[in-house]
Amino acid sequence: MTYSVAVSGASGYAGGEILRLLAAHPDIEIRTVTAHSNAGQPLVQHQPHLRSLSHLTLQDTTPEILAGHDIVVLALPHGQSGQYTDALGETALVIDAGADHRLTASDAWDAFYGGTFHEPWTYGVPELLVGGAKQREALRGATRIAAPGCNASTVSLSLAPGVAAGVIDAGDIVSVLAVGPSGAGKSLKTNLLGSEILGTANPYAVGGTHRHIPEIRQALAAASGRPSTDESIRISFTPVIVPMARGILATSTAPISEGVSDAEIRAAWESAYGDETFVQLLPAGEFPRTADVLGANTALMGLAIDRAANRVTVVTAVDNLVKGTAGAAVQSMNLALGLPEDRALSVNGVAP
Ligand SMILES: NC(=O)c1ccc[n+]([C@@H]2O[C@H](COP(=O)([O-])OP(=O)(O)OC[C@H]3O[C@@H](n4cnc5c(N)ncnc54)[C@H](OP(=O)(O)O)[C@@H]3O)[C@@H](O)[C@H]2O)c1
Q1: What are the angstrom distances between the C-alpha of 82 and each of 76, 87, 121, 239, 270?
Q2: CB under 6 Å to ligand 1: residues?
Q3: Which of 205, 204, 188, 280 is nearest to 242 (CA)?
Q4: Which residue of 74, 325, 331, 332 sits with most ligand 1 atoms within 8 Å of its CB, as the best mutation to test the pocket?
Q5: What are 145-166's pLDDT values in tens digits?
Q6: Residues 6+ positions from 283 with CB-CB distance below 8 Å
Q7: Which single residue of 1, 34, 201, 309 has CA 20 to 30 Å from 87?
Q8: CA gap 33, 39 in Å, rounded
Q9: What spacing in Å lies between the alpha carbon of 130 and ligand 1's midpoint?
């Protein structure tokens, strides 16, 4: 069976990456691409690297144009998806790359986003621990999927094994992330001009204000079987924009729980990810670079046990547009449709 797909936000970064992956998917026909201010223009004018899709023209994003497809992928600024998702009742599978359906608690939505709260959908991070299982079980046969925030899934995957096993204290997590500016989208913003970001590192959303914080707390609560509103999970989260188009390097630390051995700590991550294709733990003493996962659907992780500081340090590299968004969406889509989970996804990156 071939599934017809409409991708909205097709002129943007997330939409473009979803199209790049879907163009190589043997079970998918990309039938419709939509945008907003650029509707009416050829897709390749905005995505010149997507040569196989040069026959497509960006259409307006309306419920009528999105209707009638087997799959609809929304890659719109947060707050915009809800108006379309409410009208897509008959569509078999809808995947939202935005934040609108990620949070389960309306007060967290109000505090970090604001505007209308929409119901939570199945979270699109298959490898995430949820209680004693993995999130992929919830994704099998799902019809509504919320793809993750790129920083959020990187930090959640980094720490979920330790939180779930109880070998780290989730009440004192510190995460500092080097992030590429593509994570903030393609629309013009003065602080993201080349002249503002080249040759410098720019911290932003410092001091507990970043929108991905509630998403991480929710995911780590689920990993440890706590309610999503559990107040005991606390995270200091600081992203820093650095001059690389794509990529996230997240360094996360948390205190080691009392009486836990080094072997028990490492075993928590090994048992969580030992069988995974797209989340890989490096041997002790090795740490990833963002260049190692460029273009790959891979989260590459290094783990250190710092006894002097009594903290575990996890360094994780992802490509924000692949494992952080489009790869997570396609991997979740494959699970929802009962296809091989890795179809059209590569564990290998592009180098140098
Ligand atoms: N970038 C990432 O690494 C990343 C990672 C995870 C999740 N996401 C999520 O993916 C979503 C898209 O992000 P992005 O980085 O791709 O942003 P982007 O590059 O700015 O693209 C936004 C897209 O949405 C369209 N659009 C804007 N306003 C619209 C409206 N009112 N109605 C319909 N379409 C509208 C734009 O069309 P025009 O160009 O025609 O105006 C464009 O195609 C966001 O919710 C973001 O949080 C992004």
Answers
A1: 10, 9, 12, 27, 38
A2: 9-15, 35-39, 61, 75-78, 80, 97-99, 149-150, 182-183, 185-187, 320-321, 324-325
A3: 204
A4: 325
A5: 999 999 999 999 999 999 999 9
A6: none
A7: 1
A8: 9
A9: 29
Percentage of the residues of the chain whose pLDDT score is greater than 70: 100
Please give the distance, rounded to the nearest whole angstrom, from the Cα atom of residue 226 to the centre of ligand 1: 32
pLDDT, position 231: 86
How many whole angstroms from its chain centre is CA 349? Answer: 17
pLDDT per position as a tens digit, 293-317 = 999 999 999 999 999 999 999 999 9
For atom 43 of ligand 1, the residue with the nearest CA is 9
Active-site pick, 150, 178, 249, 345? 150
Q: Of all atoms in ligand 1, which is nearest to the CA of residue 320?
A: 3
The domain ranges of the chain are 3-147+323-337, 151-320
CA of 34 to the centre of ligand 1 (A): 11
Tokens representing 341 are 């989970």
- CB-neighbour burial class of residue 263 (10 A; exposed 0-12, middle 13-18, buried 19+): exposed
Q: Which two tokens stand for residue 32?
A: 């419709």
Q: How far is the CA of 281 from the centre of ligand 1 (A)?
A: 31
To which CATH superfamily is domain 151-320 assigned?
Dihydrodipicolinate Reductase; domain 2 (3.30.360.10)
Burial track 152-182 (b if 16+ CB lie within 10 A, e otherwise): bbbbbbbbbbbbbbebbbbeebbbebbbbbb
Whether domain 3-147+323-337 has CATH 3.40.50.720: yes
In the residue annotation, 150 being an active-site residue is answered as yes
